[in-house]
Structures are given as C-alpha cells and as structure tokens.
Design goal:
This protein is of the alpha/beta class. It has one domain: Alpha/Beta hydrolase fold, catalytic domain (Rossmann fold, 3-Layer(aba) Sandwich). Helix content is 34%, strand content 23%. An 8-stranded mixed β-sheet has the order 1-2-4-3-5-6-9-10, with helices on both faces. The longest helix has 18 residues.
Length: 256
C-alpha cells in the first residue's frame, strides 16, 4: 500500500506500508542522501523483515529524488530527520503500530534513525545503521574530500550526476555541510543500550570502516559489525545484497 502523508512543513511524503497479518514487529526503513525507497538495498532490508513477519514502513524524505515533495538542493540531515519523526508520528495513529519498533537506515538515513533512537530510546527495540554517517565533523575531516569541499564552499554548490537515476543532475547547497557538522552520534551514544547492527562495505569511501569502528567501540549494548568484502557505499551487486539479507535474517532471529 502506497500513500502520501503531510510532513510538518505541509509537504507530501510518499510512504509504502507492507503489513503482516501475523505481525511479529514493526520496522521503519530509511534511505540516504538523494536516495529513494525502491533502491535495491532498501528492497533487501524490507524483504528480510517481511519474510520475518514484520510490518515494514518505507518512505521518501522531502528534498530527495523520490516521489515526495521538495528539492534535492535543499536537503539536510535536519530535514531528513524531521521527516522521519513525522512518519513515526503518523504511524502512531495506525492500527498496526506497535512499540518497541526497529529502525533501519542507510548512510544519512543511518545517522537520522540513530539520532531518533538517542532521543526516544524507550520506543526502540533495536537499530541497524548501515554504511552510516557517524559524525558530521568526522566525515568532513576525510582527506579524500578536502579539494571537493573547498570548491563547494567557494561556489556554494556541489554538482554531480546520480548513479541511482542516470541523467539526473544533483545540485546541493553549502548549507547542507553547515548543517551536517552539527550532528554527531557519539555525543549521546551511551543512551544506545538496545541491540545495534552495523554493516559497511570494505571499499566505502563515503562512510569509511574506521568511522564504524569508532562507533562500534563506543556502543554500550549488544552489537555487531559486519564488513562486506569488495562492496562500495551503495550496495547494488546481487552477492552483496544476498550477504546483507543473511546477516539481517540472523540478527532479526536473535532479537526474538
């Protein structure tokens, strides 16, 4: 079932709800910067929870290249996080809603879902931040992006193609970086006592393994970190998606 709901700024958000008659749990699945809810890894996350009899909610944030309103150029972590809050608030009024629930997010969706868990730990059963941004500050210190950042600040824009939707040009304002530097999962990490699943591609340049290790080492509860061999930041290859499905399947079963 696909519907549109309004966020707090009166923009339409596209939401897919896949209910389960023998519902064993509820999960919200969130994409990354400029992503959308039908990406192959998003489909994989949704499928493994459906197969484990969870009701699955996926959505496109505003300011991305999915079906929701807004312009990609205005995207920020704050805006994505705000939309997640609005989707969960909407879900609380639905008959299939249950607590505690699970949050799964990729990349920017990873930091947003984890920030939500830090702010509302009582609502959360477990979280899975995948290829996640750990800290805006950490991510901006990477040596491989310093040239790009300099140019971005000077021109006010980052302009690049979308590997997800060929032919789509993505333009992003410098305000995204100013907002990104404000968010850091390590500040309230001791609140995250629920089970946490981390997965990262071995060749991830955007959210490197080193950052995941810092996050992992600071997590106080039951935790797992899996490294997908030869995989980049966005998982598209069938073998990587299969491996991720199996990791999730084992993890979900371990929670019950």
């Amino acid at each position: 079932q696909k519907i549109f709901i309004k966020n707090k700024y009166n923009k339409n958000l596209s939401v897919i709800i896949e209910t389960n008659d023998n519902q064993k749990g509820l999960v919200f699945v969130m994409h990354g910067l400029g992503g959308f809810k039908e990406q192959p890894h998003m489909e994989t996350f949704a499928k493994v929870f459906k197969d484990n009899e969870y009701t699955v909610v996926r959505f496109d944030t505003s300011n991305t290249i999915g079906e929701s309103e807004g312009n990609y150029e205005d995207a920020t972590i704050s805006n994505y996080h705000s939309d997640l809050e609005d989707v969960i608030s909407w879900a609380k009024k639905q008959k299939w809603y249950q607590e505690p629930f699970i949050l799964v997010g990729h990349s920017l969706g990873g930091i947003c879902t984890t920030l939500y868990a830090e702010n509302h730990p009582d609502e959360i059963k477990a979280i899975a931040p995948i290829s996640t941004v750990v800290s805006g500050k950490l991510s901006l210190e990477r040596s491989n992006i310093q040239e790009e950042l300099k140019k971005w600040e000077e021109t006010g824009w980052e302009i690049k193609g979308s590997e997800l939707k060929p032919g789509v040009i993505r333009k992003l304002k410098w305000s995204y970086i100013e907002d990104r530097s404000k968010h850091d999962l390590l500040e309230k990490i001791k609140i995250l006592t629920m089970p946490v699943l981390l997965i990262v591609g071995e060749n991830d340049d955007d959210a490197p393994l080193g950052h995941h290790k810092i996050l992992f080492n600071n997590l106080p509860g039951k935790k797992e970190l899996h490294i997908i061999k030869d995989a980049p930041h966005i998982f598209k290859e069938e073998k990587h998606l299969r491996e991720i499905y199996n990791i999730f399947d084992n993890w979900i079963k371990s929670l019950n």
